[in-house]
Each structure stands twice: as C-alpha cells, then as structure tokens.
Amino acid sequence: MPDTLGSPLAARDRGLVWHPYAPLDGPAPYAVEDASGVRLTLTSPDGTRYEVVDAMASWWCAVHGYGHPALDAAAHEQLDRFSHVMFGGLTHEPAVRLAERLTAMAPGPMAHVFFADSGSVSVEVALKLSLQYQAARGRPKRQRFLTVRGGYHGDTFAAMSVCDPVDGMHSAFPGALARQVFAPRPPAARLALTVTGEEVWETDRSALEAWSLEVQALAATHSDELAAVVVEPVLQGAGGMHVYHPDCLRVLRDVADEHGLLLVVDEIATGFGRTGRLFASEWADVVPDVMCVGKALTGGYLSLAAVLTTREVGGTITRSTFRALLHGPTFMANPLACAVANASVELVESSWKEQVPRVGRLLAEHLETAAALPHVTEVRTIGAVGVVQLTSPVDVPRVTRAAVERGLWVRPFRDLVYTMPPYVCTDDDVRLIAEGIVGAVAQVHG
Ligand SMILES: *Cc1c(COP(=O)(O)O)cnc(C)c1O
Fold it and tell me: 300, 296, 295, 423: which is closest to 356 by C-alpha?
C-alpha cells in the first residue's frame, strides 16, 4: 500500500476509526462511494476509482445485492410508520410476522423466537438459554459446552470461548474465557457432483469413525458438566471455510441425546440457502434444539439475529424459577430490521433454489483452474461458496488490490481466498468472480 493517501476519506479514516481485526496504522481501507445490485463503487487508497463485484456479499449478508427494490420498499414503508420501539411490554407486526415465518421455515418443530441485535449476541443468548434449561431440569452444575475445533461463533466472551482455541482469540484473553470441551475438527468432506448432477458426499470413512469415537468418549467423560453441544453445521465459516460430512452432525445429535445436552446449531453463516440447503442442518436431516440465524437474515441491510428453540426448551424455561429467558437488548426486534428481514426471507424462499445451485455450479467450474497453481493446496465449493486454499498465508493487501483491478472485491484471511457472492449474481458476474480470484492468486502467489 502506498503511504501517500490520495483518497481524502482514507486519510481521515486512518488512525481515527478502528476496523475489524486491524491495527489503527494498518493498510488504508478502500472507500465505498456507492453500492448497487452486486456492485460497489470504490476509491482505492491512492485515489483511483473502481467498480467491483462484491464477491463477499458484505461478509455473507447481502444475498440479494444492494438497493434491492423489495428491501428498499420494506424499509421505507416501515420508516414511514416507526423505526424503533422498545420490545418490553410492546410488540409489533414486523416482529410477529418474522417469528411466524422463521418458525415455519426452520428445520423441525421450532416454536419460539428470541430476537437479538447481532449474531454474537444470539450465540450468547443460546448459551445462556442452555444453562437456564439445564438448571430448570435440576442440573445446575452443567455449565460447560462441547464443541469442535475450528469453529467460529462470534466475538463476545461466551461466543469466543467456543471459537477455535488456537486460531480464535483465546491466547489474547488468558483466564478471561470459560474453558469449554473441544473435540477435534470433524474430518474434511467434499460434496461432489456426479455426471447426472447428483450430489454425493465424499470423506475418509475411517477418519470419520475415529472422530466419532473421540467425540463420544469426550462427551461421556464430561457428561455431568456439559449443558449443550454448539456447532456450525456442515460448513465452518470464519474458522477456515472447512466442509465436513453431515454424518458428523448426526453423531453430535446422538451424543447430545445420549447425555441430555441441547444441540445448538449456529446457522448464522450457513442459513438461508448458502450451503445448498435452506439450512445446513438439513444436509444431515438433523433437528436442533436451538438454532441461531443472522447475517443474511436482513439481506445485509441492518443488524439482526434470532435464536429459535423447540417447544420443549421454551416450556422448560417457562416452568423454571426465573420463568423468563434472562436477556433483553435495547434494540431487541428492531421494527425496521424486522420489516427488511421479512422482505429478505420472502425473497430467499422464492429464489434460493434456483440461484444457489446455479452460482455454485459456475463457481466449481471456473475456480477449478486454480487447483493447478503451484501454491494452491485445494479448491472446494459447497452451495454458493467457493474457496481457494493456499500453502501459506495470503498476502492480503496485494491479493485484494489484484482482485480490485480485475473488477471484484474479496477479503481473504489466513491461507484462504474465498467468495460467498450475492445470490443475484448473473452468470457473467460469477465467472468474473471466479476468474478474478484465480487471476489474483496466480499474479500474487503464482
Ligand atoms: C458472523 C458469525 C457470527 C457472529 O455474528 P455477528 O453478527 O458478527 O456478531 C457467529 N457465528 C457465525 C457462524 C458467524 O459466521
């Protein structure tokens, strides 16, 4: 990155505003001038203007792109009524409608919805709820969680405690994080397409068997202190874009049942069609006890998340000493966010089945050439997710710039250059993304 900042905004930003996981004196950011459809208009730190396809969908949220007429209309309409009211003692149409919609579309008999203001907070609520549930069942000593390595569940303290202990932020906060029980990362799997277009899962069966025995042993050892199993179903996102076999999720469901634990699935990244199922849990036909959704929930317009639970969980908490789920954010069920979420979820329901497999097929087809590059270890795709894994950490500023010059926006991390594009990308957009990723990787790491 040049030190002379041609973009006035980048110069004002630098050293003043913190960016995610970035030092105050880190590389200067690109400035967004406009966002429309799947495109961002950017000014680079050196003052050059670019129009790029957003291959990240703004961290996996903007599945319908920017300025979508239906989402804009929903926001405007709600804004004309009221944008926010407290949720204590009050309710409103957008929240009730969204709760009806989410419980109807979720896997299994989800009966209750808690609205949170971000994904991390929804995970906090899910964990808290699990402790309350166990206490209500007369097992107050069950205060820990069983999870797998390689996970990511958010940045707040309880959520961090179930993130991967090595790649997560555990070393930065020694002593401050609750110590959870970690099973190994589930072995990698691939979702392959047969010539007739059928989806088949491939994995190392003996590794899966060994993993499953290890999980069972861990659960048995810690049974009396465990409240719940917490996991991202089938695709671990920010923890490494790692795909694992649905059978592993079934194993976790069985382990939870055997030891009286709740199964909490974190569908914040995987929900709403991203993996090629409406919810990734459906790959395993697993019905969770608790499910967190967020990210694409509002199509990327506003921050909103939700925790869904079964009637059994809701009933148990209602019959407990406290009777309530002990949480209540100020902006709980924000009407503006709920109104947009209703429009977004409706769009997902009517279009993901066409969009996601189409985007996925094109990503698989056009990312494949990256596999032949010298510093690429693997190319993998699932649903509308495409991942190129390198042999060493990505040179993020250089790959970002090479991608921008090719007309796409990516935000690589660790050894991964990946895309989770908006579902509304045209075939040409998807080709541009895939070819742009291959080209940028070849240019910088070739
Ligand atoms: C992004 C993410 C979160 C955290 O959501 P925020 O809205 O950033 O707090 C939690 N879990 C998973 C799986 C995520 O991808």
Answer: 423
Rounded Cα–Cα distance for residues 176 and 125 (Å): 19
Q: Is 80 among the residues known to form the active site?
A: no
30 included as an active-site residue: no
The pTM of the full predicted model, rounded to 2 decimals, is 0.97
- Over 50: is that where the pLDDT of 279 sits? yes
- Cβ pair 113, 307 in contact under 8 A: yes
For ligand 1, the distance from its centroid to the CA atom of residue 291, given in whole angstroms, is 13
Mutate-to-test residue for ligand 1 from 120, 270, 302, highest number of ligand atoms within 8 A of CB: 120
CB-CB contact of 367 with 379 (8 Å):
yes
CA of 115 to the centre of ligand 1 (A): 14
Identify the sign of the CA torsion 267, 387, 163, 304. negative
Say how far apart CA 382 and CA 363 lie, in whole Å: 9
Q: Using 50, 70 and 90 to split pLDDT, how confident is the model at 2?
A: very low
The answer to whether 21 is a known catalytic residue is: yes
Q: Considering 295, 301, 418, 429, which one is annotated as catalytic?
A: 295
Residue 122 to residue 271: CA distance in whole angstroms: 14
Atom of ligand 1 nearest to the CA of 295: 7
Question: Per the annotation, does 6 bind a ligand?
Answer: no
Residues framing ligand 1 (Cβ under 6 A): 118-120, 123, 152-154, 232, 237-238, 266, 268-269, 294-295
pLDDT digits (tens, 9 = 90+) for 183-219: 999 999 999 878 887 889 999 999 999 999 999 999 9
Dihedral angle sign, alpha carbons of residues 250, 251, 252, 258: positive
